[in-house]
Structure formats: C-alpha cells, structure tokens
Amino acid sequence: MKRIFLVALAGLASFQLSAQNIDKVITREYTDHLIKTLSADDMQGRGTFTPGIDKAATFIESEFKKIGLQPLTGEKSFRQSFSKTRLTPQSTSVVIDGKTIAPENILTVSKSPQVTFNQGNADSFIKLDTTKTFLAQYRVLSRSGKKQVVLVDNKFAADFKRYKSFAGRGAMLDDKDLATPAQDAMVFVLGVTDIKGNYNVEVKNKVEKLPLFNVAGMIPGKSKAKELVVFSGHYDHLGIIKTVDGDSIANGADDDASGTTAMIALAKYYKAQKNNERTLIFVAFTAEEIGGFGARYFSEKLNPDDVVAMFNIEMIGKDSKFGKNTAFITGYERSDFGAILQKNLAGTEFTFHPDPYPEQNLFYRSDNATLAALGVPAHTISTDKIDIDKLYHSVKDEYSSLDVENILSTIKAIAKSATSIISGADTPTRIPKLKQ
Ligand SMILES: [Zn+2]
User: Fold this and answer.
1) I need a labelling partner for 384 at 20 to 30 A (CA). Which of 60, 196, 353, 392 fits?
2) What is the pLDDT of residue 19?
3) Do 234 and 290 meet the contact criterion of CB atoms below 8 Å apart?
4) What radius of gyration, in Å, describes the C-alpha atoms of the chain?
5) pLDDT tens, 67-89?
6) Spatial CB neighbours of 97, under 8 Å, sequence gap ≥ 6
7) How far is the CA of 361 from the centre of ligand 1 (A)?
8) If 0-12 CB within 10 Å is exposed, 13-18 middle and 19+ buried, where does residue 277 land?
C-alpha cells in the first residue's frame, strides 16, 4: 500500500514536472522572439534566391545551435544545400515567310538553353482551335516536348498576353535535366494566320544556377535511432510583391513564420526532455511557395521508409474555424496519425479535427505532400481559415495580425500529441504510395 502510494506520488511528481517543463521551455517570450524575427521587414519577405532568405536561414541555424541540435547524418552544417537551374526566355527570333515577328507577339516555352529550327527539321506548324479554350490547348502543347510553331488567332490576344508573362518567369530544372538538355521549343505566334513557305526560329534562354538550402537538425533517438520523426515548416515566403498602401514586403508572418516558429520551439522542448527513443528531425524547408523544391530535395536525401511520421506545420497564427484550442490535420482519414495525436491529448482542452476544407486540396498544397506520396504518414497541421483569410499571400500577413496565444497553445498541443510517436509506443499507419 505504502509502496504503491509512493510510486503513484512519484508518477504524479514527474507528470507535474514535465507539465511545468513545457510552460518553462515554450514560453510566450521565446515564441514571440522567433516569429517576430522571422517576419521582420529586414528579412524582406524571405523570398527564395534573395538575401532575405539567407538571413532567415542564418537565424534558424543560430537557434538550432543554441538548442544543441546536431546536423543531419552526412551533413557538415545545418544547411542542407542544393541548387536548381533557372531557364528564362532571353530572346526568340521568328521569321515567317520573310517577315520578322515582333517580340510581343511571341511566347516561348522551352527547356533548352538554345534551339534553332525551321520548316525542315521541326514538327509541322499548327493553329490553335478557336472553338476550344486557350488554356486547355496551351497546357497540352507547352508540355509536349516538341519543336513547333503554334499560330494563335487574335481572338486569344488577352490569354496570350497573360501566359506570355507567366512563361517569362522561366522554368526550374535539376542539374540532371541539363546534362542532356532537351531540344524542345513551343513557339506561340500571335496574329499570324498561316505559313505559306519557310520559317526560321531561334530560341535563347538565360541559364542561371541558383543556390537553395533547407535548414535541418536532429536529436538522435536513444533506442530506435533508425526510425525518424520529422517536424517541419517552410521558412521561405513571397519576398517583395506589389505595393499596397506603401508596403511591398510580404512578411509571411502566418505563412509560414508561424509553422517555422513551432518547429524550432518543438526542437527546444524535445531537446530539454531528453527522452526521445526515435530520432527527431527538425527542418525548415525552402522554396515551398515556388514549387516545393526544398521538401523534394529533403525526401531524396533519406529513405522514406525510415520516416515514421511527419508533422508539417503551416499557418497556425490565428484561431481555426473550430474555435480556441483547436487545429486541423490535412489528410486526416489517410492514416491513423490524427487519431493517435487526438488520443494523446485526452484530458486536455485541445482538439484536432479533420481538414474542413477538402475542396481546397490542402493535403497536396504543402510540404507534406512529397513524403506522403512516398508512403509516409505525412500530414500538415494548420489553423488557417483558408476560405476567408484575406491576408493570405498579401503584404498584410504581418506579426501584428497574429494571435500569439493561438500559436503557443497549438505548439504545446503538438508537443503533447506527439509523445507516443517519439517514444516509439505508437506507429501511424502508412499512406498508400503514389505510383511514380
Ligand atoms: Zn505556406
């Protein structure tokens, strides 16, 4: 009796200690410091390929160092560096039946640094069908990989202009794509109705090798070090965008300085706990907003079968649709990840819910999607009211619009909800792999 009483008391004491710990480690001041720094104007909106994102990465590295994380296996530092090559249309000259076409009437889609062709060595020219939409035809043709001239009726002038500016941003390629460059070029020409004889096309793209870097650290697991649990948020945002009311910095305080803050605070908490049986990886992804390149590179550097679960955190800066102390999990029904998290929160006032916006396809719109496609129970936790969020992707997504209490309660809920996964007691069911 006595002994049981003592054990119970000891259990109670240790529970209280860890409950105290969480409030001591994840404080409002700490959370505030992280999110304020990441969303400050001097980070210039953390645009990928800008000095702003470099500054943000340096800050995250310094926090990882203070916490005492280790670089990932095989990496010398917290920066997981890679590169992409951007091909941007530089010039396309088109001469049809002896007449030079004005540059504003040419739209080029090409993944080759340089291509030259004429009627003798290309796919024969075609005309867009005026009874179908421009977009439907553009989509198919721009991915065809052919060398071809496409004549576009003036009826499509407005669409042509829009997609010309879109194509003008260029394409991002991997080094391996350029080892044997494609010889493709779809050249859309506006206002020419027919080609009677000869034509000649010369396409030149500007080629730039651009550096990218995730910031990643880990806490090795005690007994199940090969089994990985990933906590992530993307630290890039849109950079400098169109000026509204004199402000052009897209601070991305909610999107996704809030999730990055959560990821760092969780690293600090678990490092202080010192009880993870599985290896915990903490990663700030780059280039989410321009195509998810950071998450893709990260997924290629490890064996997805070793990843037991991924907690990706996106936009937790304001109350969710379900009210205070709630968050939702994308793809809730695809594994029992959500049910495990919910079970670990029993007795607390916090609840997780399935994604209330299935029509928004959020499961595929964040960095969880890459690992989920590879079979990992990889989900995004969010509180954003995406259907009515007027600040989303605007210069007004600033620190002052956030509810730091909501961020704090969500981080603490995630910390508690992950307990049985990091201890190895629970293993979420796998998500079916997408066929590649
Ligand atoms: Zn985001």
Assistant:
1) 60
2) 53
3) no
4) 25
5) 999 999 999 999 999 999 999 99
6) 195, 196, 197, 198, 199
7) 13
8) middle
Q: Tell me, what's the pLDDT at 435?
A: 72
CA of 258 from ligand 1 middle (Å) equals: 9
CA of 396 to the centre of ligand 1 (A): 15
Q: How far apart are the CA of 253 and the centre of ligand 1, in A?
A: 10
Tell me the pLDDT tens digit for each residue of 237-273: 999 999 999 999 999 999 999 999 999 999 999 999 9
Rounded to 5°, angle at Cα 305 from 302 and 307: 70
Question: Which residues crowd ion ligand 1, with CB under 5 Å?
Answer: 255-256, 314
Mean pLDDT of 51-56: 97
> 88: which residues sit within 8 A by CB, 6+ positions away?
168, 169, 170, 205, 206, 208
**Residue corresponding to tokens 């779809």:** 186
At 18 the pLDDT is 55
- Ligand 1 center to 256 CA (angstroms): 5
CA 296 – ligand 1 centroid, Å: 15
Distance 288 CA to ligand 1 centre (A): 7
**Distance in angstroms (rounded) separating the CA atoms of residues 207 and 226:** 40
Residue with tokens 């792999």: 433
Decide: pTM greater than 0.90.
no
Tell me the pLDDT band of 9, cut-offs 50, 70 and 90.
very low
